[in-house]
Write a structure and sequence with these properties.
Strand content: over 45%
Structural class: mainly beta
Shape: elongated
Order of helices and strands: EEEEHEEEEEEEEEEEEEEEEEEEE
Helix content: under 10%
Number of helices: 1
Largest sheet: 6 strands, mixed
């Protein structure tokens, strides 16, 4: 890995754009790009010899490839199981039309890969404002619609180049319904639903009731049920007169975030 601030670039090091090569083709001039928040900075033009010294290279004959991935881990991307997230990025310079980008993902402690077809090649003009210069080149975009069943880390790769890693955090999908939604006091009400992924089978899920007492409403645990092999679960609640609001709560675990169902309201009238 290169140093965090090669050639005096401001902000976090991002990439190097080579703007001139010799006959060799050794690097004659290049710009080092850094990012500070949303602001892009470029160091003044650096010679190949300067880059060699700053990066600890053996020679000035070098090639540079950049790869990105979005959303980044800093974006705190979270999805619900069953949803998809688009992982995208771009690489510069362009790659051949017969080449493909790989997407690596960490699952059960093992890195696995998928082949991702690249999109069309496009022109991009890089403006180096600090140095008063500009250069042009082609870049390639790529994307993949992922549906991770649990929290998963990804990165793109092409040859020996790779993007930063990003982690998509996943919460279980939890549904809840009441049958019947309106009851009389003493009547049994079944509160149940389903959980995805099915890997949560055998786990405990908690039924909670919203208690409004004092300035801060709180969720009170009423009991636990075991999630069945098909993802279903159920609670039987003896109806008490009044209006009650329930939800099902699942703690974090098995590479999944904590999750709750949407709230369900049950109206209970007096006993006949």
């Amino acid at each position: 890995m290169p140093p965090s601030n090669p050639a005096g670039v401001r902000g976090t090091f991002r990439t190097i754009y080579v703007t001139r090569r010799g006959v060799s083709p050794r690097v004659v001039r290049a710009y080092v790009i850094g990012v500070d928040g949303a602001v892009q900075h470029a160091a003044s033009a650096a010679s190949g010899w300067t880059l060699r010294g700053k990066l600890g290279l053996r020679d000035t004959w070098l090639s540079v490839r950049t790869m990105s991935i979005a959303p980044a881990s800093a974006d705190n991307a979270r999805i619900t199981c069953g949803e998809r997230v688009v992982l995208s990025g771009r690489t510069y310079p362009t790659i051949g039309t017969d080449k493909r980008v790989k997407l690596f993902y960490l699952r059960d402690g093992v890195w696995k890969s998928l082949i991702v077809a690249k999109a069309t090649t496009a022109w991009r003009t890089f403006t180096i404002s600090d140095g008063g210069a500009s250069t042009t080149g082609r870049y390639v975009t790529y994307s993949f619609r992922a549906a991770p069943p649990c929290t998963t880390t990804y990165y793109f790769a092409f040859g020996t180049a790779y993007s930063p890693r990003t982690t998509i955090k996943v919460r279980p999908a939890v549904s809840l319904a009441a049958e019947p939604p309106a009851a009389t006091a003493g009547q049994p009400v079944v509160l149940g639903g389903a959980v995805l992924p099915l890997s949560k089978a055998g786990s405990q899920i908690t039924l909670q009731e919203l208690v409004v007492a004092g300035p801060t409403p709180t969720w009170l645990d009423l009991g636990e049920a075991t999630i069945a092999d098909d993802g279903s679960y159920a609670f039987e609640w003896p109806a008490v007169e009044g209006t009650h609001t329930f939800r099902a709560s699942l703690p974090a675990g098995d590479q999944l975030l904590a999750a709750t169902s949407t709230a369900v309201t049950v109206t209970v009238g007096p006993a006949p």
